[in-house]
Design brief:
about 625 residues, mainly alpha, 31 helices, 2 strands, about 5% strand, elongated, disordered N terminus
Length: about 625
């Protein structure tokens, strides 16, 4: 057999329950540390004086008579051994307990406790005492327990000493020894050494891998983040399991064989799930896009391998999906969850997380489908489900409002009612804004009325949208009555509402009232902005006054120290060129250029075309017009 070399390193402890799973058949049922009872003498104080580093340490051991708690007795005895440095120290304590009558598992358990308590000197002293004691026969259990204690105590430089002592007593390392050494390599973060030991086990004809051997190899694949390797290892394991002529599992027993296979499959799935979650969560390891493709690919690999995936596997992956680019993964997981069993078995929390992520990925209709399937197949939505779906509707309706898709906004509003969701102010306002942008005055009025009838209190945004719709429909008197009603019910106008009111009067041609509106704004400490004046300029062009009035308001804007922007110049230049005033439009363009503004191509072309039509020569090379056009 090749020598076993283990380098020292720091590590963390892992479970060691498998260390005694492959002991001698006659000891298998006997071994459990607490399947026995033994008695101590009456309580007495035993003081052991031992020299350690030039100092005298005093250990007090408490022994109890006929205790009903064997586990507590062994623990107390291990505590009494803490300061033992030699076989004589151990003998001085244990001779009071008739060691010949103590079962062997007591000593293996004592060694384990000493390892847990970081008292390895005492553990080795106990081994020396056992070697000197003629009434106790050493075996693999003692040495494997000591090797495990070294692992628990994290003093890996003692491992070679244990192996050498073990061989000197005529005990070749068995499968439990190998399992312990493999676990040590896992603790040290040396998974490749685990594979080397496993190869050594397979070459050695006297060793048969135990369930712990295979599970430790799988743990090594997990430590290497190698999900493909773990899956391939399990497939080979399954092939051996399914081979009736294989002697690989002959020592396991018929009952254990099936149980251990199920455990091995579950452990493989657990490792794969853990690594897939790691791909999704650790953005420093993989980008979200790469992680998405990798998870989907590996799901396909698991399908091809015919690995049984249960519902909790998919649900665990669902929780790892938190980025919008994970949408393809969560869509696939939801599909598999629905196919894995009745809908009522799916957690409502999982469904809510799916709806949330789909909304985050802007897949609002897909989120709505999930909600509809919850109503149809289960689980029944809870309050959070309603909140998430309402949020998605709000986003959709806000988008429809900004784009003026009033019919779509109305459809969404009806859909909310159908799904038992109560539209809030934001949803009603989104529909009103969509109607106003589309110039659908009648629809806006009806929506406003229904909103009030359903008990939703209009806000200043609601009134602003209605005023905008009435203005576009040239229903000026109705708009003024709505304004008066808004003030009457105590809704205070904001900048947007004042801007709409001013534009209505400008479109009506009542410029004196526009001035009054601006004065009222100033009195309310709401200063007109460039947006306000741009709206007035645009309304002049829509009304009877035309470019002349717009030009006047342009200068009034500058007189109020409000700086025009690109929209101001582009709107006015378009109006001036349309009315055959190319020189004035040219001057506005030059002024914009001097102010550092870059106007769009349409304004430039309008100036050039107007000059050509009117036969007016314009110096297009002045002030970098050619360069501006290239921009």
């Amino acid at each position: 057999m090749a020598p076993l070399l283990v380098a020292s390193s720091t590590s963390t402890s892992t479970s060691t329950s498998y260390l005694h799973s492959n002991s001698h058949p006659n000891l298998r049922s006997f071994y459990h540390p607490f399947s026995f009872s033994f008695s101590f003498h009456k309580m007495k104080m035993i003081k052991l004086k031992m020299k350690s580093d030039g100092r005298t340490a005093t250990t007090t051991a408490t022994a109890r008579s006929q205790s009903s708690n064997p586990k507590g007795n062994v623990r107390a005895l291990s505590s009494a051994l803490h300061n033992a440095k030699s076989a004589d120290d151990v003998a001085q304590l244990l001779n009071h307990h008739n060691p010949a009558h103590l079962p062997l598992p007591v000593y293996t358990t004592l060694i384990k406790y000493l390892g847990i308590d970081q008292r390895l000197d005492a553990a080795f002293a106990l081994l020396q005492w056992l070697k000197q004691n003629q009434t106790i026969t050493l075996n693999h259990l003692i040495y494997n327990s000591l090797l495990n204690a070294v692992r628990l105590g994290k003093e890996f430089d003692r491992i070679d000493h244990v192996i050498h002592d073990m061989k000197s007593q005529g005990f070749e390392p068995n499968i439990v020894t190998y399992n312990t050494l493999m676990s040590i390599y896992i603790d040290q973060g040396r998974p490749q050494e685990v594979f080397n030991l496993f190869s050594e086990i397979q070459i050695n004809g006297n060793l048969s891998p135990s369930p712990a051997t295979y599970s430790t190899v799988l743990s090594a694949y997990k430590q290497m983040d190698d999900a493909d390797g773990a899956l391939e290892f399990f497939i080979k394991f399954r092939e051996k399991y399914q081979s009736k002529g294989s002697e690989l599992f002959c020592d396991w027993g018929d009952k254990d064989k099936e149980e251990e296979f199920v455990k091995m499959e579950d452990f493989t799935v657990q490792i794969c799930q853990s690594l897939m979650c790691k791909w999704l969560v650790n953005k420093d390891l993989l980008s979200h896009t790469v992680a998405t493709h990798k998870v989907l690919r590996f799901l396909t690999c698991m399908d091809k391998a015919d690995v049984k995936l249960k519902q909790h596997f998919f649900e665990g992956l669902v929780w790892a999906c938190t980025h919008e680019e994970h949408y393809p993964v969560i869509r696939e997981l939801y599909k598999r969850l629905r196919e894995s069993g009745p809908g009522a078995d799916i957690s409502v929390l999982v469904c809510n997380h799916i709806i949330w992520l789909m909304g985050k990925a802007k897949k609002w209709w897909a989120a709505l489908e999930v909600y509809e399937e919850m109503l149809d197949k289960g689980p029944l939505p809870n309050y959070l489900s309603f909140e998430l779906l309402a949020k998605n509707f709000t986003i959709l309706m806000t988008s429809a409002g900004r784009r003026g898709l009033w019919r779509w906004a109305l459809k969404l509003l009806k859909k909310m009612h159908q799904k038992g969701l109560t539209p809030g102010t934001r949803e009603w306002n989104a529909v009103l804004i969509a109607c106003a942008k589309a110039g659908e005055t009648d629809a806006a009025v009806k929506i406003f009325q229904v909103m009030v009838q359903e008990g939703e209190k209009p806000t200043v945004h609601s009134y602003g949208a209605l005023l905008n719709a009435l203005g576009k429909g040239k229903l000026y008197d109705e708009a003024i009555r709505v304004w008066d009603h808004m003030l009457k019910v105590g809704v205070q106008p904001n900048l947007h509402a004042y801007t709409i009111l001013a534009s209505i009067y400008a479109q009506k041609g009542d410029h004196d009232t526009v001035e009054l509106v601006l004065q009222e704004m100033t009195a309310a400490k709401i200063e007109p902005t460039v947006v306000t004046f741009n709206a007035i300029i645009s309304s002049c062009l829509k009304g009877q006054m035309g470019a002349t009035a717009a030009y006047e308001w342009f200068h009034k804007m500058k007189g109020r120290n409000v700086k025009p922007n690109e929209v101001s110049y582009e709107t006015l230049i378009g109006a001036l060129t349309n009315e055959g005033k190319p020189r004035l439009a040219y001057q506005m363009y030059v002024q914009a250029y001097n102010d550092g503004l870059v106007l769009n191509q349409k304004a430039y072309d309008a100036v050039v075309h107007a000059g050509q039509v009117a036969g007016v020569r314009l110096n297009l090379d002045d002030l970098g017009f050619i360069q501006m056009r290239e921009v």
